[in-house]
Amino acid sequence: MTSPPQAATAGNDTTTAGESASLTEEKTDTTQGTTAGRSPGQLMWMRFKRDRTGVIAGCVVIFFFAIAALAPVVGWIYGKDPYTFYGLEDMSLLDPFGYPTGSPGGVSGDHWFGVEPDLGRDVMMQLLYGMRTSLYTAVPVTIVSVILGVLLGLVGGFFGGKTDYWIGRVTDFFMALPSQLFLISTMPVVVALFVAPDKETPVYVRFLAMLIILSFLGWMGMARLVRSATLSLREREFVEAAKVSGASRWRILRKELLPNLYTPILVQGTLMLPMAILSVAFLSYVGIGYTEPTPDWGRMFQRAGEIYQDNPVYMLFPGIAMVIFIVSFNLLGDSVRDAIDPKAGR
Fold first, then answer.
1. Which of 265, 224, 53 shows the shortest CA–CA distance to 142?
2. How many Å apart are CA 345 and CA 343, to the nearest integer?
3. Is the torsion defined by CA of 303, 306, 308, 311 positive or negative?
4. Exposure of 50 in the CB half-sphere (CA atoms within 13 A)
5. Range of the domain at 244
């Protein structure tokens, strides 16, 4: 008497399970079809948008680049520039000892970030133009370093043998150099190649000297990364197929290997830019980078180091700005890496 209801129940359960499995397979197929129809760039953008930390960091980085590029516009609206000695025009801004009067650092409605001691220049405009100088120097340095590293890494990893051996030994040699001491010792030498010691050094000469030296010392990490990736890619089937089809070595490097190296190159490049900014600031801090009256982050820190005991506020705004930018760029690099290769962080 109880067998038919049990059979019917079993049949209903089987039907329900079958419908659920069918629906699950349909959703899976739909999802896979949607995913398969998207390019790698679209998939990366989808993963990146889900990372709130990366999105916020990216917005902060874009803001810094935008505010640096628009520094002259901000100065026009603000009514100040980084070169005028406002403390000499308005004697009430500085006390008899040359320090800002009123609130700490001279912060007021006319000077939002205060004024510089002794000269009374506007700190906000010095900071914006200093960011502009640092970014406009660090970006070309990073681009040249990436190009050098990619070329040497590709050549060494693809050709192997003695080519790879000697490129590796040169890379080891440059990585063994004490970078800070090398920067300090070679910067005056490179500047002297363009300008006589008894003449004033133009700003563009200092820019070229830093571009040459920092690029000369910044390519090794990228070269090693690209070399290791190239070693694993050159044995893949698509490379062998290109060789069999008669493709030249240059075409294989350009069309087969390089497109598959965009991920490590992009991630490493985003991590190299903050280091380049710190190196530019370091050169200005020790007095061999940008000098007066060129606004620069490093020069502001050098000046702040002289007066921090009597006027610590002068260091506050450039210090906060640099910390926020460096941390944001590092977080952006990590988020880009996770978006491109989700398995990399596991």
1. 265
2. 6
3. negative
4. 9
5. 127-298
The answer to whether the beta carbons of residues 142 and 98 sit under 8 Å apart is no
- Structurally, the chain folds into a number of domains equal to 1
Residue 293, preceding peptide bond in cis (omega within 30° of 0): yes
CATH number for position 255: 1.10.3720.10
- 96 pLDDT exceeds 50? yes
Q: Does a structural domain hold residue 191?
A: yes
pTM tops 0.90: no
**297, 293, 262: which is closest to 282 by C-alpha?**
297
Question: What pLDDT score was predicted for residue 59?
Answer: 92
**How crowded is residue 307: how many other Cβ atoms within 10 Å of its Cβ?**
17
Q: Quick one: tokens of 12?
A: 């209903």
| Residue 72 forms part of a structural domain | no
* Of 33, 128, 176, 127, residue with least CA distance to 318: 127
Domain membership of residue 193 (yes or no) is yes
In a domain, 181, yes or no: yes
Of how many residues is the chain composed? 346
**CA atoms of 205 and 189, how far apart (whole Å):** 12
Q: Which two tokens stand for residue 319?
A: 């210090």
The pLDDT value given to residue 256: 81
